[in-house]
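Lab notebook, bench 4. Still working through the backlog of constructs that have no structural model yet. Next entry is a single chain of 482 residues. Request: give me the structure tokens for it.
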Amino acid sequence: MSQSRNVKIVATLGPSSSDRKMIRTLFETGVDVFRLNMSHGTQDDQRERYELIREIEHELGKPIGVLADLQGPKIRCGVFADAPHNLTVGQSFRFDSDETPGDATRVRLPHPEILGALTEGSTILVNDGKIRMKVTAAHGDAVDCTVLVGGPISDRKGVNLPDVVLPVAALSEKDRSDLEFACELGADWIALSFVQRAADIEEAKALIKGRALVMTKVEKPAAVKDFTSILDASDGIMVARGDLGVEMDLSDLPKIQKSLIRDCRNVGKPVVVATQMLESMISSPVPTRAEISDVAGAIYEGADAVMLSAESAAGQFPVEAVATMADVARKVEADPQYRESIDASRTTAKASVATAITAAAREVAEAVDVSAICCFTHSGTTARLAARERPNAPIIALTPIRGTARSLTMYWGLHCIISEEVTRFKLAVVSAARAAKQMGIAEEGDRIAVTAGVPFGRPGTTNILRIAPVDEQAIYEGESNY
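Model written out:
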């Protein structure tokens, strides 16, 4: 079963997509990676979904990626005596540490360290940015504000502070519990929410201990400002446009998205575009024209993956949403302008033998009509470098390590195969030719490009490239004819 597109689809599981039949249908429709949202449901709920994914993976014989998304330190206001209250423009409102239920003039903010960090002029957003306030006076244990944009406020609404680097731990106690649970479960990627600095990522990595890769969600202005160091510390990036759109000017989002995608492509780290991509399909089987353009725009910009949230987790049409994304991806990638844009935006990677080999594989594939680029990898490095090149030929990533194959499902263009262990390059060529033929990517007499690191099993040693024919007799007889 080969994939007819390069961009990957991440779909969130939830009430609408938790039984075996639906999960299998979603995968067969086009999902590459399933997201387990730790903000909703119990750990037992997520365990059941994970086990179903692995059973389906075993049945179909194709690796499936799993992304566990941590909730992060979400800030919420306290409760009110009589809610909701309608705040009007120009009125005064106070956030304080008083545990008494709030009213139309004040409410508790149960985060004393945040109250202490706010200063005169700080912006406070409530309820996904629907209410906007400006701090007029800071007292350490309370802040007085003026309402700039009014609206209804009620119990435990989310609070965003766009121009303050929050003095809170990157991982709450719930996050630490969920992180350990996800790692023990076998999640391939851990998504970190509300990251503000590279140190937040390093803290998580110290707890993960190499058991999963880290996907950093960029949803804070501080993360955009410090993106270079955050990208360097991360294994992948998610452009999480929900909270980012709350805390920053909405008109800045397209520019930021384009910039983050470009920076990720330059260093060969996967980038996922998320939030409200097909929002109307939560309740409609047909998306809006603007949503189709949004998905297409992310693909034209070179994103590795696009993501569904509530559309697949709680929506009425999860299968239709996945099918729509897959269809948009295929049609965008068939557009000659897409290939022109991808080629024009390619940059030169940092010089090394491995990057030179993978760049050469792409150039040879384009010059001599190679049917596939086949990468043998243990750690995933060889395949990741190939994905960075965005070649016109399909990329087959072969690895004997199941965890590596699963993690690579997040990367642009990779057809991931769990192969037998090989110790000689000739055997690698045989296995590559066999895989390309079985997947329907190459036929008898076609040529494939094979890259690998010799000696095998040593990460980061990509140092050999061979162009080989797909020879059925050689495949049958093994290495002798190669």
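Notes after review: The chain has 18 helices and 21 strands. The mean pLDDT is 93. Flag for follow-up if needed.
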